[in-house]
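Job type: complex structure
Entries:
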Amino acid sequence: MIKRIAGLILLMFVIPLVIGGFGDPQPQADFVYSSTAEHNSRDPQRMTYLHDIRLTDALFETLVILDFNDMKTYPGVAESWDISEDGLTYTFHLRENARWSNGDPVTAGDFLYSWRRAMLPDTAAGYGHFMFFIKGAEAFFHWRSDQLERYVETFGEGGGSEQDARVYWDEAQKKFDELVALSAPDDRTLVLQLNRRTEYFLDMLAFATFMPVHPPSVRAGVIFNADTGGLLDDPTYWNDPERLISNGPYILQDRKYRRYNYMVANECYWDRASMKNNSVLEMIVSNEQSQLLAYESGDIDYVPGVIPAIAYDMIRSDRNDVHVVPRAGTYFYNFNCQPTLNNGEPNALADPRVRKALAMAIDRDEIIKSVTRLDEPPAYSFVPPTALKHYVPPTEDGPRFDPVRAKALLAEAGYEDGGEIKGLSILYNTNGGHENTAQAIQNMWKEYLGVDVTLEGVETKISSARSRTQDYTIRRAAWYGDYADPTTWLDIRRSDDENNTTKWENLEFDRLLDQAAEASDPELRRDLLRQAESVLIRESPMALIYHQVEVALFDPDRVSGLGLNSWSRVRFEHISVDRERGDGRAK
Amino acid sequence: MFRLIFWRLVQFPLILAVIFVVTLLLAWVVPGDPLSTDDGREVKPEIKAAMMRQYSLDKGPVYFGMSYLKGIVVGTDRAWPDFGPSLHHQDERVSGIIGSSLPVSVMLGSAALAVALFIGTVSGVIGALRPGGMLDLSSLGVALVGISLPNFVTGSVLLVVFAGMFKWFPVAGWGSPMHIFLPAVTLGIAPAAYIARLVRLGLADIMSSDYIRTARAKGLSKHKALFEHALKVAYLPVLSFMGPAAASVMTGSFVVEKLFNIPGMGDHFVNSVINKDQFLILGVVLTFSTMLVMFNLIVDVAYAWIDPRIEL
């Protein structure tokens, strides 16, 4: 009997060896950084998350490189470019020695293919609308959407064949050439025309959506969907390290799901000679405490973001490897601005005075001191003051903490007693420590205004679904800039923007943004944007609370060339690590 | 016995079909939009519609279920069985995700079971040798603690002591046998305590039964009676416990995986639902159910192997 039991135990030990679930040991690299979550997408056209952009920045190179530290543009795949007098036509001259990792030259046609891919509704690119700056792109997008609807109407459920889908696609390709002002006269010239003068278009080109993909390898995974008529270009296929061909400083050598991404220098990269390291390893460590232990033991060189619970003590120590970086993000509460709520009740928040009173009854310094505790700058503007070089937001117009004035405003709006305002609640998502801030604000509104609000913590997906249908009164939100221009923030409060979940509609604000878009003089444009932002923050469709910061870890004695910036974008090829140096803590 | 195995195998697809339908409907009614991003950014309605079309989410649960089923049974040119793409990790196919996380969890799970069986059997037998003695009381105490402590406490203590203070084991991660020890102990300690109690109770009970007394009276040594006759019977409840225990530890534990940063299955049970990743939800639930049904069958077969008196 003992033998049988011993056999059973032995069997349990043997099973793992047979399965061999350990896989390969983690590779060694010149530079190691960590991430707390597995990537959502490595597809430049499809990705939407910051940690994804960080990876694509290493793998793919755009026409123009934006250095987020000095906010200047540098030649990337394009060695030079001409901009027409009216600021509408851009001609990019591609460098001759730009190569894909398999040795193929990077051509203008590759960019054309990739950008068209972003414009296609088939690709369902989250940031596809960035392409709409290009003349005709939006028209093409809608044309193709309509065409696909026509396909389904014509062939019905599952009626079409792959051949039918191909015929539609051929037609779409012709339509693209006809509609979109984007062309490649030869392999090394890319010409495009914009809808209107866009001062920051070169900066935008640094965004992942504008990165090229290698057309032959993407095409190899394309399936024509006979049911929908659409192109199914399958990222689970071409994006695999075995097939992924990139044109940036690195290639994706190996990856293990939820363990690591291992990148080595792309030997075909045109600027290979000036790269400061040969390999980068991204370790995926979902547990923040383990991440910290791995950093302290020297396994990780750079931790891009530490959670507040851990960061709080660290930033108060005298360590020189703890870096507090302001981010290009703002934390705020949205107000539902519709005249009536979804349940038919009148909405007190439709009155700007009520909204402003609430915004003025938030003691931001107190929240930063005792709740968030990372010395975040209090927010008096929507655009973070440190994010942009040339734009100074009108912080003087932002509602300050002033309970007396707030009470007066409320009285002016017809509420002598704050208790008369009924039915308000703060909707927030329960992951990420938003509850404490919500409680603090709940108390402040009660104490300073007598306004009762309830708290509603729900899951992220539910919170965003309710926000979309205005099924809320007050909701926690945050916004990070995508590109280096005030419009990346201000545009989301346009009346017709899908991100304007407050349903705040202000014609003057829209008009100022339109005027700014048409303005050819940069100074005038910035002034108009400043006026628009001033309208926004005086009308308070949201209560601005603070600008977010990120606490990063790296030892400056060991790691050089790692510039921290508000945009959390890193150029890995500039980084070198000297593991012999540094103090006793990080060996 | 073969008849039993045959009938179980016939029931197999039926059970899975019921689980599939129930999970599909539940995954469908969970509120939230699988394609929305966590940072609250809205995508253009046309792009949203295109995404829905691409993943066949626009035609309701029946159509979705049928095409999903087709992928599993027939497969696609990407994989077989194909559980479809993940909605949250767009570069992954669900079969790839399960394919990379399941071996990790099975490995960790079997190591944990080995730990549980070893500790459980040894301390159960020791306890039964002299019921009420010091060793019995102390093993009872340890078992009580083992069952009561949640594994994030056990795990954290082990981590701080053996990885942090003594540095005998790596802090976290996966990739070598050293990585498996602490999580296996963490995961195995609760079932070990349970097994110890089962073995001890069973042994104590049987050792005082008539046939053992007769055998002892005829001169059979205590050890022989215990190990060769009593243990056999006392072990049967352990086996019935092993089936579901194996399925549950081998499909991963969210807490232990998070704590030790192990890329196993546990994470998917929680996060696929939070992300409303319907493809992944169905994939992991089907995998788990298959394993559960399979382990129960194995346990029944093992019953007959350990105790030939039992006819199936």
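Summary: Residues 104-263 of chain B form a domain with the MetI-like fold fold (CATH 1.10.3720.10). Residues 164 and 171 of chain B are 7 Å apart (CA to CA).
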